[in-house]
Specification:
- With 388 residues, the protein is of the alpha+beta class.
- The chain contains twelve helices and eleven strands.
- The strands form three sheets. The protein has a four-stranded mixed sheet.
- A hairpin with an 8-residue loop joins strand 10 (295-302) and strand 11.
- Helix 1 crosses helix 3 and helix 5 crosses helix 6 (198-212).
- The two termini are 24 Å apart.
């Protein structure tokens, strides 16, 4: 049963947050290998700290890719905007400890003459969609993402040179009967040049925040917390060590839906932590886009080395207009049985499309001409609507 009135909060972090810097670097590695060989295997972890970048993990692909990684990594850090004394794209030390993929894992995952490609690991993956925003995403998370995305665009364009790359946002919305109706509180912490007070930052960021939130959401009762610690000059990897995969709730649904636990960045699409989570979002979004429910949660379970899913579960969150059991029969078949190979082929995931996913969410994004965010397409909605 939907509660009549409640508050809900989600956060986002910018591309310059240390964990997001690590995610970006790990997915630059994935893209580099997939560009050289679409069947490459990558499991890359990154750590960033004061003027230090460290890569580790397992790969299988053309030998020459590793030699070119340092240049790509430094270019990514430069694109984010780090040219600070404590973390500089040019001056940070670089270490690469990538090595060959375990043969024991490969034998379970690789297809053979009598076995289809198996899942890259055991696990549970979730997807979610809700009609509370045009992107079919939770409003608290979508607005948190959009605030940081707009501020980053202003920084990159030179419109707001006072801002530095590291930032966090948090939006708390008041819900009535399951729908967001107003902003209870807004939190924004952004790294900045020296000499600015929280009041200065408030005046700077307020117009961008008001532009993101729907008209009327911000009232006199809305609580604002802008740079509440008072100063945020030291930031990024110099202020806090960053690691790949530590922002999985920011990456997905902001706490509005379950998460299976596995991170996305640094993994090639044979890893179902990534590809099956994308498939779950794709199917859930199409269910909501078809008008079959206001909210939809989907779970798939896998065993390592096994191609067929162990389970496929649909929850329409008490908003459904169809029998979820029927969807459990239909939806897997719409993507070839939801095997790891079928998912990769249906969504065309064996492409260098992953670095762009690492900031401002893997979901709720616009599909692009190069194949990025293919899981956000609603090309099944008409067929689903016709079935019911």
């Amino acid at each position: 049963m939907i509660r009549p009135s409640y508050l809900f909060t989600s956060e986002s972090v910018s591309e310059g947050h240390p964990d997001k810097v690590a995610d970006r670097i790990s997915d630059e590695v994935v893209d580099a290998f997939l560009a050289a060989d679409p069947q490459a295997r990558v499991a890359c972890e990154t750590m960033v700290t004061t003027n230090r970048i460290i890569l580790a993990g397992e790969v299988r692909g053309p030998a020459g890719v590793v030699e070119g990684l340092e240049e790509k990594v430094r270019a990514a850090v430069k694109a984010i905007g780090y040219e600070q004394a404590g973390f500089h794209w040019k001056n940070a030390s670089f270490e690469c400890h990538l090595h060959g993929q375990s043969a024991d894992i490969a034998v379970g995952v690789d297809a053979t003459s009598n076995k289809d490609e198996g899942a890259g690991d055991q696990g549970i993956m979730f997807g979610y969609a809700t009609n509370e925003t045009p992107e079919l995403m939770p409003a608290t998370l979508q607005y948190s993402h959009n605030i940081l995305k707009d501020l980053a665009a202003a920084r990159h364009a030179g419109e707001r040179p006072e801002l530095e790359p590291d930032a966090k946002s948090q939006v708390t919305l008041h819900y009535e009967n399951g729908k967001p109706v107003g902003a209870a509180s807004i939190v924004l912490s952004t790294q900045h040049r020296e000499g600015l007070s929280p009041a200065d930052i408030y005046d700077l960021v307020r117009p961008y925040i008001l532009k993101v939130l729907p008209e009327g959401f911000v009232t006199e009762q809305t609580h604002w917390h802008v740079n509440p610690t008072g100063i945020f000059v030291i930031g990024g990897p110099d202020g806090d060590c960053g690691l790949t995969g530590r922002k999985i709730i920011v990456d997905t649904y902001g706490g509005a839906a379950p998460h299976g636990g596995g991170a996305f960045s640094g993994k090639d699409p044979t890893k179902v932590d990534r590809s099956a989570a994308y498939a779950c979002r794709y199917l859930a979004k199409n269910v909501v886009a078809a008008g079959l429910a206001d909210r939809c949660t989907i779970q798939i379970g896998y065993a390592i080395g096994v191609s067929q899913p162990l389970s496929f579960y649909v929850d329409l969150n008490d908003t459904g207009r169809v029998d979820p059991a029927k969807l459990e029969e239909i939806l897997p078949q719409m993507i070839g049985g939801a095997t790891p190979r079928a998912i990769r082929e249906h969504l065309k995931l064996n492409r260098p499309i992953y670095a762009r996913t690492t900031a401002y969410g893997h979901f709720g994004r616009e599909p692009d001409a190069e194949g990025g965010f293919s899981w956000e397409v609603t090309d099944l909605a008409d067929e689903l609507r016709a079935m019911f």
